[in-house]
Each structure stands twice: as C-alpha cells, then as structure tokens.
C-alpha cells in the first residue's frame, strides 16, 4: 500500500490525514487488524525504532510501552523475579523472552502505560499476546506474528485492536523533513548508533562498570533517544523504572523520573504485596488503588471512607518513615540523561533513588562539580559526548 488514509490527525478537527512515502513507494508496514490513527502511528514508528536499536545494541529481545510519543517503559527480555511477576500481574503466565520484555516494559509504570502502544523487537508469540490481551492497550507493532498470537490479538477490543506489522529490513531516507506552520524543516536522520563504546570515557574515580550496568545504561540512552526532551531515565535489571520526559528543567526531569523509580520500588514493599483487593477488581482499578495507597493521598481516602471500593480489609497505612526507609534500600540503579547535567543537584537527587551508574554527554562549565558530586558517593559516571534530544 502506498498511502493509508486516517480518520483524522492529532485531533478530530484535523482533516484530512494520511501516511504515505514522499517518493511514492510502498509503505514499509502493513495493518493486519484495526484502524490505527495518526498518534497511533507516531507511537508505533518511534517505539519500533527504539526496540530495533535495543536488540541491535544488546543482542536481547526488547519491548516498549509508548504513550504520547514517549516511552512509559522499555525493557529487555531478561528473567522476571517472583516479586516482579506479582507486581506486574504476571503470576501464572508462561513467559518467553519477548513476553518478559513486554511484561517488564508495561510494568515499569503501569499507570502511564494505560492505553499504550506496544512495540516488540521480535515476532509476537502467543505468550506475549495472551498477556497483552488482558491489558488496556491501543495497538502493537512487531516484525511478525505467529498465527496463534494474531488470532488472540484479533479478539481484543471487540475485534478492533490495532495490529501493525513492520518490515524489519526497512531503512529510512538519510534526510527527514517535517512541516510546522506551513514551513518545512529538514535535518539528517538521527542514525547515531548507541553501543558499548559510548561508555568508555569514565570520568569518575570509580571505574568499575559491570556488564549488567552497561546493558542498563545502553537501555537508558536508547530510551532517551526516542523520548521527548528534556528527558532523564532510571533503569534497573534490564528495564526502565522511571522516565521523566518533556520537562523544561533538567532537575525537574531528574525529580520526575526519580519519583517514578521510587514508586516502582514502593510497589514491592511487603505492605503493598499484602494488599487484599475486592473480588473481580479490574487491572486498571488495581493499579490506581496501589498508586493512591503509596501516595500522599491515602490519608484523604481513609478520611472519606471509600477504601472499601478497592480493598477487602482496611489496609494498614504505609508511613512516610517506612517509605523513606524502603526506598533507601534501592541500589544498583543506572541513570541516563539526554543532555549534560548543569549542576551537581541532579546527581544528589539521583542518589536518593539508588543510582550507582550514570551516563550523560558532559560538556557543562560545571562538569568538575558534577564529577565531584558523583565521586562523593562512589558512583561511576561516563561522559558519552553525544546529546540525544528528540522533538
């Protein structure tokens, strides 16, 4: 197909809308089910670039969960712990590597992944499709689908679930163009390859960067490459645990992503794992209930007496002291930034969420202060020399 007409653009009033190749050639994708929209395709094509690059950089299956043209989560197909299976609602699922990648990508920030677009680096199998069928999601892009997986996905959303197959061998034109206010912008396609060599310039006294942390830093940097800037990303055990996107201030990015990482950690607290939900509660409602329980809003919920809507028994509060103590046990976290840290305050905030490894471009006039702050906490920090803005 050379052109695909869309219902409308970003908003219902933006018509006509379509996707096509400027040179008149065939589109490098096929819609196997549903009717994806303008924003769906923006999510699909950005998320596909991310997982394709992750697979190339690490050799591992990769998945992403996209919302509004930024990743809510991205992950590699590494093993799931028993606690992760519980907090991602994956208990009892058979999990192939590509299924694990999506479960972890979706689990990174389940609240933000509500209504996501899923992307897979590998062929979608039945295990992945069965998990995805239970989630609120708008669509998926992958290089292929098994017959069983496609049959499962076609039953989702009363048969209207969006399923897109992309040509894995497609390479974009080296020059990309877009229009804003009727004016055409042109730039070279960002083909910069993120690989292990980017982590060779370690500027801190501590230079011990294990392989697992290298994978995590590559995951962070590649996630940032396809995240609306400014952006900062926290990663642990082959999955993002906090993405801060589109903030005007870098410290606000670091705080936003750090608060998401903290929430990821709090979801593993024994009190959260012991929560008793009412029978038949839907997965999104369970996500919302957990989010409120670990937030500062919980006291208001208790005061209003509406906790019975989600829980069988009244949960014991998770105090501020307990939260702080639990988050303080988080270690071995990696962090990437799409541009340099202008001040050491970003490192100070990162430390509070267990960050031990950092990759950032460097180039600030205060690099010495940033390095000194990292050295104060025995962190490992690499200067990549490459900015990763995405707009």
Features:
globular, six-stranded mixed β-sheet, 15 strands, 391 residues, Cytidine Deaminase, domain 2, 3 domains
Which strand order does the major sheet show? Answer: 3-8-7-6-4-5
- The strand count comes to 15
Structural class: alpha/beta
Main sheet makeup: 6 strands, mixed
Domains, number: 3
Text of the CATH class of the largest domain? Alpha Beta
pLDDT averaged residue by residue: 95
CATH architecture call of the largest domain: 3-Layer(aba) Sandwich
Task: Give the CA-based shape.
Answer: globular
Oligomer: single chain
CATH superfamily of the largest domain: AICAR transformylase, duplication domain
Q: Considering DSSP H and I runs of 4 or more, what fraction of the residues is helical? A: 25-40%
Stretches where pLDDT is under 50 for at least 5 consecutive residues are: none
CA-based gyration radius: 21 Å
Describe the secondary structure blueprint for this structure.
Elements: E1 3-6, E2 17-20, E3 29-33, H1 38-58, E4 62-67, E5 70-76, H2 82-87, H3 97-107, E6 116-120, H4 126-133, E7 137-142, H5 147-153, E8 162-166, E9 175-180, E10 183-188, H6 211-225, E11 231-236, E12 239-245, H7 250-266, H8 270-273, H9 283-293, H10 298-304, H11 320-327, E13 333-337, H12 345-351, E14 355-360, H13 367-376, E15 380-383
Parallel strand pairs: 6-7, 7-8, 13-14, 14-15
Antiparallel strand pairs: 1-2, 3-8, 4-5, 4-6, 9-10, 11-12, 11-13
Helix pairs in contact: 1-6, 3-4, 4-5, 7-12
